[in-house]
Amino acid sequence: MNFLENLEPLLKAFWYIALPVSLFFILQTILTFTGFGGADADVEVEVESHDVSDAPFELFSLRNLINFLLGFSWTGISFYDVIENKSVLIIVAVVVGIIFVGLFFFIIKQIMRLGENNSFTIDKTLNQTGTVYLTIPEKKSGRGKIQISINGSYHELDAVTENEKLETGSIVRVIGVDQNALVLVEKI
Protein backbone atom coordinates (compact mmCIF):
# COMPACT_ATOMS: atom_id res chain seq x y z
CA MET A 1 0.00 0.00 0.00
CA ASN A 2 3.06 2.29 -0.01
CA PHE A 3 2.51 3.20 -3.66
CA LEU A 4 -0.75 4.95 -2.67
CA GLU A 5 0.96 7.49 -0.38
CA ASN A 6 2.20 9.82 -3.15
CA LEU A 7 -0.95 9.75 -5.30
CA GLU A 8 -3.43 12.58 -5.71
CA PRO A 9 -6.47 12.32 -3.39
CA LEU A 10 -9.00 11.38 -6.13
CA LEU A 11 -6.77 8.67 -7.59
CA LYS A 12 -6.05 7.42 -4.09
CA ALA A 13 -9.82 7.21 -3.43
CA PHE A 14 -10.33 5.20 -6.62
CA TRP A 15 -7.59 2.77 -5.50
CA TYR A 16 -9.04 2.49 -1.98
CA ILE A 17 -12.36 1.53 -3.52
CA ALA A 18 -10.94 -0.76 -6.25
CA LEU A 19 -8.71 -2.99 -4.13
CA PRO A 20 -11.18 -4.29 -1.52
CA VAL A 21 -14.07 -4.40 -4.00
CA SER A 22 -11.97 -6.42 -6.47
CA LEU A 23 -10.94 -8.81 -3.71
CA PHE A 24 -14.56 -9.20 -2.61
CA PHE A 25 -15.67 -9.70 -6.23
CA ILE A 26 -13.05 -12.43 -6.80
CA LEU A 27 -14.05 -14.17 -3.57
CA GLN A 28 -17.73 -13.90 -4.49
CA THR A 29 -17.03 -15.31 -7.96
CA ILE A 30 -15.08 -18.27 -6.56
CA LEU A 31 -17.86 -19.03 -4.09
CA THR A 32 -20.43 -18.78 -6.88
CA PHE A 33 -18.65 -21.25 -9.15
CA THR A 34 -17.88 -23.70 -6.34
CA GLY A 35 -21.52 -23.70 -5.30
CA PHE A 36 -21.12 -22.15 -1.86
CA GLY A 37 -23.66 -19.46 -2.28
CA GLY A 38 -23.15 -16.48 -4.41
CA ALA A 39 -24.99 -17.01 -7.69
CA ASP A 40 -28.50 -17.38 -6.41
CA ALA A 41 -28.19 -15.33 -3.23
CA ASP A 42 -29.69 -12.15 -4.65
CA VAL A 43 -31.75 -13.73 -7.41
CA GLU A 44 -33.35 -16.83 -5.87
CA VAL A 45 -35.59 -14.93 -3.48
CA GLU A 46 -36.83 -12.73 -6.30
CA VAL A 47 -37.51 -15.50 -8.82
CA GLU A 48 -38.98 -18.04 -6.39
CA SER A 49 -42.61 -17.03 -6.85
CA HIS A 50 -42.40 -15.44 -10.30
CA ASP A 51 -41.86 -16.50 -13.85
CA VAL A 52 -38.29 -15.70 -14.90
CA SER A 53 -39.45 -13.10 -17.42
CA ASP A 54 -41.46 -11.36 -14.67
CA ALA A 55 -38.71 -11.48 -12.04
CA PRO A 56 -38.13 -8.10 -10.45
CA PHE A 57 -34.65 -6.64 -10.45
CA GLU A 58 -33.38 -5.87 -6.96
CA LEU A 59 -31.60 -2.58 -7.60
CA PHE A 60 -30.16 -2.08 -4.13
CA SER A 61 -28.34 -5.29 -3.30
CA LEU A 62 -24.82 -6.08 -2.14
CA ARG A 63 -24.02 -7.74 -5.46
CA ASN A 64 -25.11 -4.68 -7.45
CA LEU A 65 -23.18 -2.38 -5.13
CA ILE A 66 -20.04 -4.47 -5.72
CA ASN A 67 -20.62 -4.42 -9.49
CA PHE A 68 -21.16 -0.67 -9.51
CA LEU A 69 -18.08 0.06 -7.39
CA LEU A 70 -15.98 -2.32 -9.50
CA GLY A 71 -16.88 -0.49 -12.73
CA PHE A 72 -16.68 2.94 -11.07
CA SER A 73 -13.27 2.49 -9.42
CA TRP A 74 -11.44 0.75 -12.25
CA THR A 75 -12.78 3.26 -14.78
CA GLY A 76 -11.55 6.08 -12.56
CA ILE A 77 -8.11 4.47 -12.30
CA SER A 78 -7.90 3.62 -15.99
CA PHE A 79 -8.90 7.05 -17.30
CA TYR A 80 -7.34 9.21 -14.58
CA ASP A 81 -4.46 10.38 -16.82
CA VAL A 82 -6.57 10.41 -20.01
CA ILE A 83 -9.45 12.64 -18.85
CA GLU A 84 -8.09 15.92 -17.51
CA ASN A 85 -11.38 17.29 -16.14
CA LYS A 86 -11.96 15.33 -12.91
CA SER A 87 -15.70 16.09 -12.85
CA VAL A 88 -16.05 14.48 -16.29
CA LEU A 89 -13.94 11.55 -15.06
CA ILE A 90 -16.29 10.98 -12.13
CA ILE A 91 -19.34 11.17 -14.42
CA VAL A 92 -17.78 8.66 -16.84
CA ALA A 93 -16.91 6.37 -13.90
CA VAL A 94 -20.51 6.56 -12.59
CA VAL A 95 -21.90 5.75 -16.06
CA VAL A 96 -19.59 2.74 -16.41
CA GLY A 97 -20.59 1.59 -12.92
CA ILE A 98 -24.25 1.73 -13.94
CA ILE A 99 -23.42 -0.19 -17.13
CA PHE A 100 -21.76 -2.89 -14.99
CA VAL A 101 -24.96 -3.27 -12.95
CA GLY A 102 -27.06 -3.48 -16.14
CA LEU A 103 -24.66 -5.98 -17.69
CA PHE A 104 -24.83 -8.15 -14.58
CA PHE A 105 -28.63 -8.07 -14.66
CA PHE A 106 -28.63 -9.06 -18.34
CA ILE A 107 -26.25 -11.97 -17.72
CA ILE A 108 -28.24 -13.26 -14.74
CA LYS A 109 -31.48 -13.01 -16.71
CA GLN A 110 -29.93 -15.06 -19.53
CA ILE A 111 -28.64 -17.66 -17.07
CA MET A 112 -32.06 -17.92 -15.42
CA ARG A 113 -33.66 -18.55 -18.82
CA LEU A 114 -31.57 -21.71 -19.06
CA GLY A 115 -33.66 -23.09 -16.21
CA GLU A 116 -36.97 -22.75 -18.04
CA ASN A 117 -38.93 -25.96 -18.49
CA ASN A 118 -39.38 -26.53 -22.22
CA SER A 119 -40.22 -30.21 -21.98
CA PHE A 120 -42.99 -31.53 -24.18
CA THR A 121 -46.40 -32.35 -22.74
CA ILE A 122 -49.39 -33.45 -24.74
CA ASP A 123 -51.46 -30.56 -23.34
CA LYS A 124 -49.26 -28.06 -25.20
CA THR A 125 -50.70 -29.33 -28.50
CA LEU A 126 -54.23 -28.09 -27.77
CA ASN A 127 -55.37 -25.50 -30.37
CA GLN A 128 -52.10 -25.87 -32.30
CA THR A 129 -51.93 -26.70 -36.00
CA GLY A 130 -50.12 -29.60 -37.58
CA THR A 131 -49.91 -31.67 -40.74
CA VAL A 132 -51.35 -35.13 -41.32
CA TYR A 133 -48.44 -37.54 -41.69
CA LEU A 134 -50.38 -40.81 -42.04
CA THR A 135 -54.00 -40.73 -43.25
CA ILE A 136 -56.53 -40.48 -40.41
CA PRO A 137 -59.68 -42.61 -40.93
CA GLU A 138 -63.11 -40.96 -40.52
CA LYS A 139 -65.29 -40.98 -37.38
CA LYS A 140 -62.67 -42.38 -34.97
CA SER A 141 -62.64 -45.68 -36.89
CA GLY A 142 -58.85 -45.84 -36.72
CA ARG A 143 -55.71 -43.91 -35.94
CA GLY A 144 -53.47 -41.86 -38.15
CA LYS A 145 -50.49 -39.65 -37.36
CA ILE A 146 -49.85 -35.93 -37.38
CA GLN A 147 -46.65 -33.91 -37.23
CA ILE A 148 -46.77 -30.88 -34.98
CA SER A 149 -44.16 -28.36 -33.89
CA ILE A 150 -44.12 -27.43 -30.19
CA ASN A 151 -41.37 -25.16 -28.79
CA GLY A 152 -39.41 -25.49 -32.04
CA SER A 153 -39.31 -29.29 -32.05
CA TYR A 154 -41.40 -31.63 -34.23
CA HIS A 155 -43.44 -34.45 -32.73
CA GLU A 156 -45.34 -37.29 -34.38
CA LEU A 157 -48.56 -38.04 -32.54
CA ASP A 158 -51.34 -40.56 -32.98
CA ALA A 159 -54.52 -38.80 -34.05
CA VAL A 160 -58.21 -39.45 -34.65
CA THR A 161 -60.98 -37.33 -36.14
CA GLU A 162 -64.75 -37.19 -35.62
CA ASN A 163 -65.50 -36.08 -39.18
CA GLU A 164 -64.34 -37.06 -42.67
CA LYS A 165 -61.15 -38.92 -43.57
CA LEU A 166 -58.04 -36.70 -43.47
CA GLU A 167 -55.49 -37.36 -46.20
CA THR A 168 -51.72 -37.06 -45.83
CA GLY A 169 -50.63 -33.44 -46.10
CA SER A 170 -53.88 -31.94 -44.74
CA ILE A 171 -53.54 -29.09 -42.29
CA VAL A 172 -55.33 -29.81 -39.01
CA ARG A 173 -55.96 -28.21 -35.61
CA VAL A 174 -55.82 -30.17 -32.36
CA ILE A 175 -59.18 -29.82 -30.58
CA GLY A 176 -58.75 -32.43 -27.85
CA VAL A 177 -56.16 -34.57 -26.09
CA ASP A 178 -56.24 -37.98 -24.43
CA GLN A 179 -54.13 -39.38 -21.58
CA ASN A 180 -52.73 -41.98 -23.98
CA ALA A 181 -50.98 -39.37 -26.16
CA LEU A 182 -53.85 -39.45 -28.65
CA VAL A 183 -55.07 -36.19 -30.14
CA LEU A 184 -58.45 -35.32 -31.65
CA VAL A 185 -58.06 -33.15 -34.75
CA GLU A 186 -60.22 -31.32 -37.26
CA LYS A 187 -59.38 -30.06 -40.75
CA ILE A 188 -58.74 -26.34 -41.07
TrEMBL record:
<keyword id="KW-1133">Transmembrane helix</keyword>
<keyword id="KW-0812">Transmembrane</keyword>
<protein>
    <submittedName>
        <fullName>Serine protease</fullName>
    </submittedName>
</protein>
<feature type="transmembrane region" description="Helical">
    <location>
        <begin position="89"/>
        <end position="108"/>
    </location>
</feature>
<dbReference type="GO" id="GO:0006508">
    <property type="term" value="P:proteolysis"/>
</dbReference>
<dbReference type="InterPro" id="IPR012340">
    <property type="entry name" value="NA-bd_OB-fold"/>
</dbReference>
<feature type="transmembrane region" description="Helical">
    <location>
        <begin position="13"/>
        <end position="33"/>
    </location>
</feature>
<keyword id="KW-0378">Hydrolase</keyword>
<dbReference type="GO" id="GO:0008233">
    <property type="term" value="F:peptidase activity"/>
</dbReference>
<keyword id="KW-0472">Membrane</keyword>
<keyword id="KW-0645">Protease</keyword>
